[in-house]
Amino acid sequence: MTLGIRALLVGVASIALVGPMSASAQATPSTGVSAVILSQTTIGGYDYILREITIAPGGSTGWHFHDGTLYAYVRQGEITHYGSDCAVDQTGGAGTAFVERAGAGNVHVERNLGTEAQILDVLYVLPTGSPLSEDAPNPGCPFE
Fold this sequence. Notes:
Number of helices: 1
Oligomer: single chain
Helix content: under 10%
CATH topology: Jelly Rolls
């Protein structure tokens, strides 16, 4: 994890620990995905939500986009992240950090093609009141 992303994740977590709350991933269709909100706060019109996401082997987030920027860190497993052009745009194992850009023009899906669960620590920076994700149809890729 880059020092900047780690500092941001730690800072937000220390500002607003609200206790763990269960949540399910929001995407169409998702399979094998579970998530827990670790921390959240609102500052200056933005919700900062720290979430642990687990994707089982063979699982997928489904196609979706976000109304704000996400900063992710792979704690375990191997990521395979696809953009709307059906091409892999992010890969990597434990220790990999990546950013998901905001907006409907950034539809994507994360698939776990490995044999162990993926565990991601994700910081959502969303306009206040926005959903964690917005469902999107498959943009024409030969997989979900």
